[in-house]
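Usage example:
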Amino acid sequence: MSSEIINTTVEEYKKLVESLHAENYEMMVDLTVVDWFRKKEPRFEVVVQFLSISKNQRKTIKVFVDDEELSIPSITDIYPSANFYEREAFDMFGINFLEHPDLTRILMPDDWNGHPLRKNYGSGRIPVQFKNAPKVE
Amino acid sequence: MYTPDNILTTTIDKAVRWSRTQSMWPVTFGLACCAIEMMAAGSAKYDLARYGMEVFRASPRQADLMIVAGRVSQKMAPVLRQVYDQMADPKWVIAMGACSSTGGMFNNYALVQGVDHIVPVDIMYQVVLPAHSL
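Running the assembly step on the lines above writes:
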């Protein structure tokens, strides 16, 4: 089952989502971010998936977010389920969602610095020396 | 002095300590997969009731043992400490499984690498899936 992919811009994004809501796409299924670090410019791409239960169709919207501003309108007023997804996108990637009711960290502690799922964020691994193993950094 | 066979003499200290070991009530601190193993250990096949631990008190004020079963994330660590502080003396901590003892297979930013960074641990054991070791 494939879904139609629509590429759009940050300016057209909110209007497109409102039109999808009017066309009976009742459910926002997923909102996530792709970090194209060093592979594509601009770096972050917001991917939103919609499902129309009445029409049995899915649509995907992909929006590239500007690198300096890193902000995109929030669709929480149209699809309330986007609330937690946008908080997770903010927590893990640092994308600012404008007019979000409560844009705070959801997975990491509230005073955490950094956005863990970016490609240039290390794993935070503590080097462990195992017995009888070659020394690793 | 002759004591008949059905009388046991001891010190109060020893009697109290014996009764404490015979029925330790754990507080439910099952976090992740080890919590399932803890539930399995409390059920019929690997019975925790034979050690007197059949009652898992939900309130830490009524428990004397905390079994940290599962991964402790950075966000959960202050909560863990708060539950530990609410337990009355004497109290013990078992770090169940690799993830709570040392961070286990998850050596990253999100998990506390060993719950002994937060609470003093008395027993650690490292077998993943340890229902029968508990």
